[in-house]
Each structure stands twice: as C-alpha cells, then as structure tokens.
Amino acid sequence: MSRFGINIASTRLAFFLIALVVLQILVSAVVPQRDLAEGQLIGWTSMMGEDNAVVRVLQLDRIYYSPVFLVSLALLGINLLAGNITRFRTVLRVEGSLLKARYLGSIIFHLALLMIVGGVMLHALYRFDGAFGMTEGQWVRDEESQYFHIDKGVLNSGPTGAFTMKLVAVDRAFPLKDATTEAAVIILKPLDGAPPMKDRVRVNHPFRWRGFEFHYGARTGYSPEVLVLDSSGQVEFRSFVRLKVRRKGAGWIHEDFIEIPESRTRIKIRIDEEEGNEFPLRRRLTVMDADATIFAGEIATGDTVTAGAIRVAVPRLRSWCYLHVVRNPWLWLVFTGFWVGLAGLTITVLPRVFPQKERRS
Amino acid sequence: MNNTETILFWTTALLLSGGFFLALLSLIFGRARPLTISQILVAAATATLTALGVVRWVGTGHPPFVSLFESMLASIWFLLVIYQAVRLKVGQTVAVLVPVSGIALMLMGWSSSLPQEATPLSAALENVWLFIHASFATAGAAVFLVGASYSVIYLMGEEKLEGLRRSVPALPNHRDLPGSVVTYLLFGLIMWGVMIVSGSIWAHTAWGRYWAWDPVELWSLLSWLIYALIYHARMSLRLSPRVFCSLNIVAVATVAFALWGVHYVYETIHTYG
Asked: Running DSSP on this structure, what letter comes out for residue A15?
C-alpha cells in the first residue's frame, strides 16, 4: 500500500480504471471522432452526435489521442503488472506452486493483456500506411512525394525507398465463387537488385514482401486520357486524369475538372456508370472558357470535339485504383497477446467445467 | 426461403411457442409434467432449426452467417444447443427453460420480419475467418443470453424459487445461481474474445488495418469490457448477487446491440451480406 492509501495492484483500482476506459469509449460512440493530424472525421467511427463547444473544449472528438485515454491505458498497464506480481508472490507463498489452473490461467491472461496494450502502443508509434493512387501502366516509387496519402506513427521514419511498383491492370470483374471483385495486377521491383515479382492483389488477398503488405484500396475509378490541341494542332495538354468517384443510387459518377495551364480553359469530364455494367454508359464533356461554357455534350473514346479555338479528344480510357502499402512491425505482439490471453482465460475456466474431486484423507 | 426452409422455420417457431408456454404455465402453477413436455418440444425445435441451417447451407453453398436473418437464426441455434448440452451434462437446466425458450421465440419473431432471401458471399466475406468470426459471435451471444437467463431466475427471488422447488424438485438452489452466472460470463468472455480476435486478424487481411473503431468493432469491445467490469466489480466491490445479476442483464443488452442493433443506428463497414 502506498503512502497515499492507493494500492496500485488492487482489483478495485482495476475496476475504476476499466470503468474510466469504458466511459471514454462510450463517449466516442456518440461523438463523431476526428483524426489527429488533419481534424478530418474518421469515416468508420460514430457518425452520431453534434459538434459543439463542449466537445471542442474537452476534445471529446479526439478521445483515442487524448492524454486522459492514454494515461488511463498506461495506469491500467501498471495495475496489470503490479497486480500480477503481487498475485504471483502471494500464490507462491500460500500454495507453494503456480500450477493450479485458476491462478495460472488468471496470471497468463493478465500478462497477455499487457502484451496487447504494449503491442498496441508500439504499433501506434511505428506503423506505416501509405496509399498510392495509380493509373494502369503507371510506375511509382517508395518516396514521400509519390504517395497520395501517408498515415504513420510518430517514430516511423517514413518511406524507405525500397521498391518501385507498376500497376499493370485493374481487373474489374475477377471471378469468385458467388460474386466478382476488383483486383490489381502489380509488378514490384526491389531496388536492391532482387528480381521483380508479379502478383494479383485484391480484398482478403494482400501481397506480402519483406515486412511490407500491399492491399487493394477501397476505390476504383476511371482515368481517361485527355488530349487538348490548340488551333494550330499543337498539344496543349495530354495526360491521364484520375476522375473522382462518388455513389449515385445504384451506380457511380466519375468526375473531375482539368485546368489548362496558362489559359482560362477548364474542362470537366464525367462518366456515369451503372452498377453491373462494366462499360461506361455515358461520357460527358463540358469545356469552359472562364465562366462561359463553350461545349457541352457526349464524347466516345477516340472521338475529337471542337470547343471554341481548341479541340478535345479522349483517345484512351484506363482504370485507376488505390494501393495501400502497410508496415506493422509490432502487430505480431498484439496478435500473440490475443491468443495467449484467450488461452489464459480458457485455463481459468477449466476448473468450472472439470471440477476436481475432493481428496479423501 | 424455399418451401422446405419455410416449413422448417415455422415448425421451429411453433415448437418453441409450445415449449415456452408450457414451461411458463408449469412454473406458474407449480406442475412438473408440463416441464417434461416442454423440454421435448424445445429439443425438437433444436432439431428442426438444425435441419433448417443444413438446408440453407447446402442451398447457398456457404455457412448461414451472411445476412442478418441468418446471423439471428445462428444465435438462436447456439442458444438452444448450449441449453441442450448443459442439460445433458449438468441436468439442472429447467430453471432457465422459460427465459431461454422465450428469448429464442422472441428472436424467431424478429427474424421473421427481416429479409430472408439468401445472399451470395461478397468478396470481403470469402475467407475462412467468416466461419470462425461469425460462429463465435453468435455462440458468444448465446452464452451471454443463457447467463442472463440464470440472472432472471435469480431475480425472481429465493422465496418464489424455493416454493416452486417443492413441486418441481429439478429446479436449482437459489444460492447456486450466481455461480452459474459467473461461469457463463467467463465462457462468454472467451467466445466473444475469440470473435474480436478473429475479426481483427480478418480485418487486417481484408482491409490492411486490424482496428479502426468501426461502430461494430467499438460496441463489441465495449460489451466485452462491460462484462469484464462487472466481473471485477463482483470481486473488488463485493457486489451483492442481486446487483450482480441485474448488471448481467443490462450487459447482455450491449451484446445484442453490438450484434443486431448497430446497423440500424450507425453507418458501418460491417455490412451483412
């Protein structure tokens, strides 16, 4: 017992710390949470509740990053460790052995919780999740400037420059048993001279290489090649343009703007896709000079349309997708902790299922 | 559902209704014989529900866990199977026959209002972890529900239960019930824990992240922590059995919400089908 009258190893303290963690998680279930870096709403968490002054002042929308949450977890870890050491010593002194299911199971389970908490914290510090937005035929390099988005722990040094990668093709209808799915065929080229590898990546089937995992992303879209010629036939603009994707009813809309450098011309291209129809149904082009629309109509692949002084063509149509590069150096600790903890719980429960018979004197 | 599935579904519902009402009448009027018939009806309902699951599995080609309807039926099946298994091992399960059959009947009623057509497996679900994750989710929920049933019986009160034991000797001692509740709580923690662990491993394979505080993940963890909290409260705060059993009933509501209620309230990546 410390001088402050608090027993750091006590079950009562464990109860209050667990209650504190539960309360904070409950708050996060009703207040929309935001990520730490950019303040964006985290899409997969609660979408209930309203943003207001109380939320902002108390930072209730960043519960998982708040000092209170982290300190609660840290104190719980200390309590777990102290509690197990105390239990360990008490059982050895009183029973003479730890080899009784009730004690052994409980100690194993609580130590496993420590592994999980430790693994979660180390994972949070060292993890890396970078997303490439790639069009078919494009090569990318493992460099910060090439990633569409990077989310990493504070102790992770970022991209290591270990590979280049090409998106060979996006298969929009890879056959499965009952359905089809999207899959990306990639070529990975290590930059240390090892031979390149080719593989197909899709949901539930990431590609693993030297601690990296390559996962298929959540979005697939269209990337038309847009060619703009001036009045003399010179190329003003030629590039594949990754169109943004959004849901519309049962289908999708792929749409984006292009601004031609050094002119006031803006080109909007939109592709409407019906669910289940792998070929784009309608492609619409709008060409604007400043705020004036000088062309609006449909365009097929290979067609050229004249809009004022320029001509616009869509010679080719490709697909694009996100590919996530993930590194989780400490995830093994979390998963090992999971299974060890379950084993400990199971050992604890065994005496209730198979009670020991009383020994006769 | 096809004709065979429809017949099996409604036969199960009918058998459960008979079992529930006979058990209830038996306890109200203190008669042992209707309880015996009730046990037979509930055992028969278990058999017909098993047949329904097999027919559904053969028809769809995948384990019947994909839609909300299938998930609910799976929970009912685990609830009844756990009841039968404990009855064979321990014997003294008549006490929870009323709440178990009542809960199963209520869930049958709820599932009858859900879309029942078989849905094909989406790409994200074509993984061996579906079987492990979904079965432990439904089994864990069933174990917690059985524990809650013992809590309900305990809360009836010692006088009432001892009064019933005079005419139905198979009923357990009132003081033994909290111990049973603890056993089911611990089993439930294991099963729900396997569900969370297998879900994390599967999420990492499917989506590249093992935890993202998705509402289903959040509420699953919350319910697990709440049960852990109740268990620690019983040990450290020396909760009375009455308070402990009451909290156990409240906790099972969070399990039911995590499994079946989240989709009505939140947007979540955990979609059925």
From this structure: H
Q: Which amino acid is at B261?
A: G
Q: Which of A23, A243, A14, A270 is nearest to A117 (CA)?
A: A14
pLDDT of residue A41: 59
Helix (H, G, I), strand (E, B) or coil at B269: coil
Residues of chain B below pLDDT 50? 273
Read off the pLDDT of residues A167-223 as tens digits, 9 standing for 90 and up.
999 998 888 877 788 899 999 999 998 999 999 999 889 999 999 999 998 788 999
Strand partners, A41: A34
Q: Whole-prediction pTM value?
A: 0.85
Q: Give the amino acid at A355.
A: P
Q: Is B122 helix (H, G, I), strand (E, B) or coil?
A: coil
Are the C-beta atoms of residues A182 and A321 closer than 8 Å to each other? yes
Q: Which residues pair with A225 in a beta bridge?
A: A240
Q: Which residues contact A223 (CB under 8 A, 6 or more apart)?
A: A135, A136, A240, A241, A242, A243, A317, A318, A319, A320
Per-residue confidence (pLDDT) for residue A49, from 0 to 100? 54
User: At CA A241, angle to CA A237 and CA A243, rounded to 5?
Assistant: 145
pLDDT of res. A287: 84
Mutation site for B-interface testing, chosen from A6, A15, A127, A132 by largest number of B Cβ within 10 Å = A15
Crossing angle of the two packed helices B129-155 and B177-207, in degrees rounded to 10: 160
Q: Shortest Cα distance from B96 to chain A (angstroms)? A: 19
Tell me the one-letter amino acid at A236: E
**Ramachandran region, residue A180 (left: φ > 0; alpha: ψ -120 to 50; beta: rest):** beta
CB A48 to CB B236 under 8 A? no
Single out the residue of B7, B11, B41 nearest to residue B24, CA to CA.
Answer: B41
In chain A, whose CA is at the least distance from the CA of B237?
A12
Determine the residue among B88, B127, B209 to mutate to test chain A binding: the one whose Cβ has the most chain A Cβ atoms within 10 Å.
Answer: B209
**Using one digit for the tens of pLDDT, what is the confidence trace for B12-26?**
999 999 999 998 888
The predicted structure's pLDDT at residue A361: 39
The CB density around residue A160, as the number of other CB atoms within 10 Å, is 14
Is the ipTM of this structure higher than 0.85? no
